[in-house]
Specification:
six-stranded antiparallel sheet
Length: about 350
């Protein structure tokens, strides 16, 4: 599928400066054409560029309902990585886990190739998650329910047999590669750089005895929190945004929830409720519980690396000393375990 090609760009004078492109925005009109041409979703009534994040999100309204069209960034995910995610979501839906799953084209494809000026990008239509993000964040009942659902997701994922490949959520990926992005910005602050490395080494040492075997190791959501969960008025939930999924420690998903909930100001009771909900379905072993603080720190370093990498491309003006000081203070607070 070609939504945009060089031939569709107005010809410039021969003396005009010729520039390469790192990011382009697909026009909503082009998305509307693609949806109408490749999917049986009814007549498109409206298409809005909904959100610019690690991917571009469009909200589609047709005469059959609402849908999400996600367009990957050229530099972010390979086709194999995206296919892994889509296979996983389809598997979860088949096994009654409430996720916003991908919808196929008329020919059965889950992923469309887009010829953008910067290179190949990939587009996918997803079901629209009913409900909305909880106002003021999760309450204890919702947190408990999210924990239960996460445990069921991990249990069923033992049987997932992917065709596509994706990097595993190992310390090398979530900590070492993240620090490779962060460290150059701290070279003029050697004490802070040493603090970053010291905390990372401590976390990796504490995780080295955590087995990468069943039941500890399964396919993880990668980004479980209230912002990626919709609840209806009667508390029916739907999970979405599995862009960061992959094989990893099941307890890492709980660490990621803790990391986001601590940043958003959730009360300790809400954090405890998600673990209680999880344990009611699939109790953690003691070694996993002991590692939760380290997994929370690891999740913070990973999220920092992802955020920084995106800011380098799109928001370099934010990367002043104050930005790094704030992040380092949060990292030190998490590593103190005083939360």
């Amino acid at each position: 599928m070609t939504l945009l090609t060089q031939s569709s760009i107005k010809s410039l004078p021969t003396h005009a400066l010729q520039c390469s492109v790192t990011y382009s925005t697909i026009a909503p009109k082009a998305v509307t054409t693609a949806i109408s041409s490749y999917y049986d979703l009814g007549q498109v009534k409206n298409c809005q560029f909904w959100y610019h994040g690690l991917s571009d999100i469009y909200r589609i309204e047709t005469d059959t309902g609402f849908y999400i069209f996600r367009v990957s960034h050229h530099h972010w995910r390979s086709r194999s990585e995206i296919q892994f995610e889509l296979e996983f979501l389809s598997f979860l839906r088949e096994n009654k886990i409430p996720v916003a799953s991908p919808l196929p084209t008329r020919t059965g494809e889950l992923c469309l190739e887009i010829a953008a000026p910067e290179g190949v990008r990939y587009g996918t239509v997803f079901e629209y998650a009913a409900g909305s993000v909880p106002i003021g964040d999760l309450d204890c009942t919702q947190s408990h329910q999210l924990g239960e659902t996460l445990a069921k997701l991990h249990q069923i994922s033992y049987d997932f047999s992917p065709v596509s490949e994706r990097s595993m959520l190992t310390p090398e990926l979530i900590i070492d590669r993240s620090n490779q992005i962060i460290a150059p910005f701290l070279e003029h602050r050697p004490w802070d750089l040493q603090t970053l490395f010291s905390i990372a080494d401590q976390v990796k040492a504490e995780l080295q005895n955590l087995p990468q075997t069943k039941p500890f190791w399964t396919v993880c959501w990668g980004d479980p929190h209230s912002g990626n969960t919709h609840f209806t008025e009667n508390n029916q939930l739907t999970l979405f945004d599995f862009d960061q999924c992959g094989y990893g420690w099941r307890a890492f998903d709980l660490g990621k929830f803790y990391q986001v909930s601590l940043q958003s100001g959730c009360t300790p009771k809400v954090r405890e409720a998600v673990l209680q909900g999880y344990s009611s379905i699939s109790p953690l072993r003691q070694i996993e519980i002991d590692c939760l603080p380290s997994l929370t720190v690891a999740a913070f370093i990973w999220a920092w690396g992802i955020h920084l990498n995106r800011a380098i491309c799109f928001e370099y003006s934010r990367l002043d000393d104050h930005y790094f000081t704030r992040r380092l203070e949060k990292l030190k607070h998490l590593s103190s375990r005083n939360w």
